[in-house]
Amino acid sequence: MNVLVVDVGGTNVKILATGQTELRKFPSGPNLTPKQMVAGVKKLSGDWKYDAVSIGYPGMVVRNRPLAEPHNLGRGWVGFNFEAAFKRPVKVVNDAAMQALGSYRRGKMLFLGLGTGLGSTMIVDGIVEPMELAHLPYKKGTYEDYTGERSLEKRGKKKWRRHVADVVERLTTALEPDDVVLGGGNVKNLKELPKGTRVGNNNNAFLGGFRLWEKAGDQRRTPRPKTRNAKKQKHRGLKVATGSKSAPLRRPVRERRSRHQVGVTRVKVSSTSV
């Protein structure tokens, strides 16, 4: 099956299809409607063949549909029929959940996306649980108010980095994950990684989108998307906080295939997840 993955962000809409090596994108912004998004995607992917679509949506998703309008885009997303618009089967998940799925290795993982806002997802033994930690109270606002792009522009890199480190520490202490992954476009603005974290390649969002359509156990065979920008995502100059480098993860032991494996149509998102 050829899958078209659409990563809808507050700044750009990025797309990649099975077998392609170069992602394509077009600007989004505060006035982008779902109809405009679909039109832009169709225009960009006109010479690609695909059988199904995965959409990473910057907001709450329940049962394959947006539950609330996005904070950084236009209106009309709730109730929009993506399958009718694309004329293909469509799976919609939270954008942070899609990147988290592509970054997942094992155990209990916390993913935090440092982009326009603050994306957050937990994956526990292969079960995806999107979260809305961004809007929990923090200082004189919310976590997103201090770790999002507006905070970076308003407070500058030095203060923003301190807030990111503090938020990561608080959430790690509260949720006790085995693995903490930082993704999103603003990871590059960190001078050093907060204690016990690793950087997730932003292209993992596409890997996560491909994994949504796999059968249980097939995710080991999914090749990681290769793009011209892949080298830029390595962040070679990024240091881990002194004394905080996390131990390398071992290759997961092969387990019997079950509904708990990450992958695919069997990934669970409960109705209470946001």
Summarize the structure.
By secondary structure, the chain is of the alpha/beta class. The chain contains six helices and 16 strands.
Notes on the structure:
With about 270 residues, the chain is an alpha/beta fold. The chain has one domain: Nucleotidyltransferase, domain 5, CATH 3.30.420.40. Helices cover about 25% and strands about 25% of the residues. It contains six helices and 16 strands. The chain has a five-stranded mixed sheet with strand order 3-2-1-4-7, sandwiched between helices. Strands 10-9-8-13-15 form a five-stranded mixed sheet, sandwiched between helices. A hairpin with a 2-residue loop joins strand 11 and strand 12. It is globular and about 45 Å long. The C terminus is likely disordered.
Sequence-ordered SSE layout with sheet pairings:
Blueprint: E1 3-8, E2 12-17, E3 24-27, H1 34-44, E4 52-57, E5 61-62, E6 65-66, H2 82-86, E7 90-94, H3 95-103, E8 108-114, E9 118-124, E10 127-131, E11 137-138, E12 141-142, H4 143-147, H5 149-175, E13 179-183, E14 192-193, E15 197-199, H6 204-211, E16 239-240
Helix pairs in contact: 3-6
Given as residue ranges, the uncertain stretches (5+ residues, pLDDT < 50) are: 230-266, 268-274
Major sheet attributes: 5 strands, mixed
- Give the ordered list of helices and strands: EEEHEEEHEHEEEEEHHEEEHE
User: What portion of residues belong to β-strands?
Assistant: 15-25%
Total tally of structural domains: 1
Strand order of the largest sheet: 3-2-1-4-7
Q: Rg, please?
A: 18 Å
Tell me the CATH topology: Nucleotidyltransferase, domain 5
Instruction: Tally the helices.
Output: 6
The dominant shape is globular
